[in-house]
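Progress against Task 2.4 (sequence-to-structure conversion) is shown through the following example record, which the project officer requested during the mid-term review.
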Amino acid sequence: MINKTVILTALILLAVNPGNGISAEVEIGLKADDSGIKEFYLAIGDHYSAPEQEIMVVKKRGMPDDDLPVVYFLARRAGVQPGVIIDLRLDGKSWMDISLHYGLTADIFYVDVKEDPGPPYGKAYGYFKNKPRKEWKNIRLSDSDIVNFVNLGFISSYYGYSPNEVIKMRSNGESFVKINGKVKHAKGQGKAPASTKAAAKTEKQKAKGKNK
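Structure tokens generated for the chain above:
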């Protein structure tokens, strides 16, 4: 009886104020999820200072889960709203084309690692390894390369986790949603050390300064 009352009340509220439909749907979606997606979205929101509801709206525009960090990474770097990046993506542009549109070159995606990575990162890292740093801006990465790099940087930075360990999990074919869950579990509370958070903050400030 209580459940029926709650459902009826929710339907009445939606009928009276349909503008709240998205946020209600977002909240229900997050609470109902138990496959690790909720944790992934929350981590993205925390790392990129994005509201949970916004992330769900972005997702509903057709972005695959593993692409969500790319949307926010480029939006922050370019100094635009995530919706602007999505519009360009849905218009058929590659992630590299969108980056170059805002004067962002391949070097922004690079994540330093201690060991030579294997697939699916080996070929992409080869582009950087075979060129002097001053020529990295001329590198063109594929969509999959950029998705892999951005998620690698996001997860390793957010949790203070070894990039090489993330690469090993990715090489087994695991999605970044699953990798995020495993790293969060391994780190206990799922929070990066203060030094890592400070480094991430400095990086954000640098990106902000470049857009002025």
